[in-house]
Automatic annotation (TrEMBL):
GO molecular function, one term: GTP binding
Residues given in the record as GTP binding sites: D16, H17, G18, K19, S20, T21, N133, K134, I135, D136
Gene that produces this protein: lepA
Protein name, UniProt field: Elongation factor 4
Membrane topology: Peripheral membrane protein
GO cellular component: plasma membrane
InterPro entries reported for this sequence: EF-4, EFG_III/V, EFG_V-like, EFTu-like_2, G_TR_CS, LepA_C_sf, LepA_CTD, LepA_IV
Protein's organism: Thermodesulfobacterium commune DSM 2178
Taxonomy, superkingdom: Bacteria
Family classification: Belongs to the TRAFAC class translation factor GTPase superfamily. Classic translation factor GTPase family. LepA subfamily. Belongs to the GTP-binding elongation factor family. LepA subfamily.
Coiled-coil region(s): none
Length: 596
């Protein structure tokens, strides 16, 4: 295919501004998907994406479009997620593109991730085409949105395309703008092969599948290729594109995006960000990607200890598809063998756990999330601690440092008061308050990240009726008065329930947590005492009274089906229970701190 007729582009936007819906209309308009096969958010292929209505993984599809100039163009469209936890997916996708459609919801205007995504696109030198979406809504304000695009983002909105992705208005204009404004990819077909790996996953039939952008040269079945970072050589078995279903093709050439398989068995050998070259050639590698450091940590354990090996295999495979989480083996006195995992945020943590459970059929327990602290000891050593179970003895500690972020909150002005209160309550320090327009402003705070991890985002959304949005960057570590709180169940400390808290809030959190645990731990045949303690000092105590009767005693008289039903119900309820000593503790107990 002529290289000057290739267009590689992404759709970027704040969450819910209509990226996936616009992608649907483009698939339809170009005939890639017939209206009979069409379903909403076509490219959200994971069940989880469809249920939650959010995009988690970037997707690359190939389309052909006959433009007004009569020529046929090859489009490689990459749909991307919008949530802050998945920024790394966006940045990888953008590395494979020359342009981006920036979608802005005309009823919402510019929001935190709109701006964050624009910065990513600029870093990758992409041509940005502003698209104002949802113009069908009665609340849509096109002029105001244009003004925000110019004043907040600094892009000219004169030629912004007015679209209703829902009703299919303005789609042709979008496709023509892609042809006219986005440059064709550079690179040389005659040069030796260099391809950038920007995603990969494990397929039960093909082995490891690698999504690539060919920068120079070509790649075809039978070719011997080498992964630059490992030096391993493979023979390509299959080359293909998503159109939008997986389709085999003869080769991919410079400028094109597609997938390859090469009987790669070891999941770690196809690293995202690596460069693929010909087996013999000596060429310089492509720049690759910045490593994504996880910021939130939690333990993941199998409910049934026999599943440890299965969990290990599942984590290794999932990691290939999502290198933004990290893992290392962990043993807990309470929960047995498992993994300490690192994530980009709480949503990311939830998604990883859910994908492990669904895609690999596992039943898991996760512990309460923690950030990474730096602990300076009196002997001069400094430790990094992200697991409360590994907190050093308080007598040895000189100083504790905690991570801080610079949070930018975009909000309509009527919620300003409540949001300021929220930030102050979270020990935040106000740095800036700017009005973007007379109605909208951005509030900048420095806040301890551990406060944000707990429930900040949910509160932000509820205080602002969903209108405020958040973006943040890490700015470093600052001293904090932090202590470890232990939870004792019948006098036994449960390592997996301990947590790090701010001293000022320890009493409050301890009492609330003990009360919450009392709610979620089922009654047992014996009395259960729950205590929260700091060091040897007990700060809260709750008691769960013992069960008097066997549940079955209620169906005395022996209606067999009813008895069976009850037993099944009990079994059902047991699914996510982990036995600690003699007590069965449900998943909710481990995450109770998030609910305070
Ligand atoms: P994404 O998170 O950016 O991928 O957004 P989605 O494409 O999933 O859309 C979010 C919501 O906005 C969905 O409920 C869509 O039906 C709706 N939506 C998308 N485009 C339009 C539009 O042009 N008009 C209206 N009224 N709703 C839209
Ligand atoms: Mg989407």
């Amino acid at each position: 295919f002529p290289q000057e007729k290739i267009r590689n582009f992404s759709i970027i936007a704040h969450i819910d501004h209509g990226k996936s819906t616009l992608a649907d209309r483009i698939l339809e308009f170009t005939g890639a998907v017939s209206s009979r096969e069409m379903r909403d958010q076509y490219l959200d292929r994971l069940d989880l994406e469809r249920e939650r209505g959010i995009t988690i993984k970037a997707q690359a599809v190939r389309l052909y479009y006959q433009a007004e100039d009569g020529e046929v163009y090859q489009f490689n469209l990459i749909d991307t997620p919008g949530h802050v936890d998945f920024t790394y997916e966006v940045s990888r996708a953008l590395a494979a593109c020359e342009g981006a459609l920036l979608v802005v919801d005309a009823s919402q205007g510019v929001e935190a991730q709109t701006l964050a995504n624009v910065y990513l696109a600029l870093e990758n030198n992409l041509e940005i085409i502003p698209v104002i979406n949802k113009i069908d809504l009665p609340q849509a304000d096109v002029e105001k949105t244009k003004k925000e695009i110019e004043e907040v983002i600094g892009l000219s909105a004169e030629e912004a395309i007015l679209v209703s992705a829902k009703l299919g208005i303005g789609i042709k204009e979008v496709l023509e703008a892609i042809v006219k404004k986005i440059p064709s990819p550079g690179g040389f077909r005659e040069k030796p092969l260099r391809a950038l790996v920007f995603d990969s996953w494990y397929d039960p039939y093909l082995g490891v599948v690698v999504l690539i952008k060919v920068v120079d040269g070509k790649i075809y079945p039978g070719q011997k290729i080498r992964f630059y970072s490992t030096g391993k050589v493979y023979e390509v078995t299959k080359v293909g594109v998503f159109a939008p279903e997986a389709t085999s093709i003869d080769m991919l050439v410079a400028g094109e995006v597609g997938f390859i398989a090469a009987s790669i068995k070891e999941v770690r050998e196809a690293k995202i960000g690596d460069t693929i070259t010909e087996a013999q050639a000596q060429v310089a590698p492509l720049p690759g990607f910045k490593e994504q450091k996880p910021v939130v940590f939690a333990g993941i354990f199998p409910v049934d200890s026999d599943d440890f090996e299965d969990l290990k295999e599942a984590i290794e495979k999932l990691w290939l598809n999502d290198p933004a989480f990290s893992y290392e083996m962990e043993t807990s006195a309470a929960l047995g063998f498992g993994f300490r995992c690192g994530f980009q945020g709480l949503l990311h943590m939830e998604i990883v756990q859910e994908r492990l459970e669904r895609e690999y059929n596992l039943n898991l327990i996760s512990t309460s999330p923690s950030v990474k602290y730096k602990v300076r000891l009196k002997n001069g050593k400094e430790l990094e601690v992200e697991n409360p179970a590994k907190w050093p003895d308080p007598g040895l500690i000189e100083e504790v440092l905690e991570p801080y972020i610079r949070a930018e909150i975009y909000t309509p002005k009527e919620f300003l008061g409540q949001l300021i209160n929220l930030c102050e309550e979270k020990r935040g320090i106000q740095k800036e308050l700017k009005f973007l327009t007379p109605e909208r402003c951005v509030l900048v705070y420095e806040i301890s990240f551990s406060e944000v991890v707990l429930d900040f985002y949910d509160k932000l959304k509820s205080y602002s009726k969903g209108y405020a949005s958040l973006d943040y960057q890490f700015i470093g570590y600052k001293p904090g008065d932090l202590v470890k709180m232990d939870i004792l169940i019948n006098k036994q400390p449960v390592d997996a329930l301990s947590l790090i808290v701010h001293r000022d809030k320890a009493y409050y959190r301890g009492r609330e947590l003990a009360a919450k645990l009392k709610e979620v731990i089922p009654r047992q045949l014996f009395e259960v005492i729950i205590q929260a303690a700091i060091g040897s000092k007990i700060i809260a105590r709750e008691r769960i009274a013992p069960l008097r009767k066997d549940v079955l005693a209620k169906c005395y008289g022996g209606d067999v089906t009813r008895k069976k039903k009850l037993l099944e119900k009990q079994k059902e309820g047991k699914k996510r229970l982990k036995a600690i000593g003699q007590i069965e503790i449900p998943q909710e107990a481990f995450l109770a701190i998030l609910k305070i």
